[in-house]
């Protein structure tokens, strides 16, 4: 089960995805 993180901007989403790794699903 992956954790879902939602942020306000695609740029921040991409940076967070790289930071958190594949176990997190980051959406904007």
Automatic annotation (TrEMBL):
Toprim domain residues: 2-28
Signal peptide per UniProt: none
Stored InterPro entries: Topo_IA_core_domain (IPR023405), TOPRIM_dom (IPR006171)
Protein name in UniProt: Toprim domain-containing protein
Source organism: marine metagenome
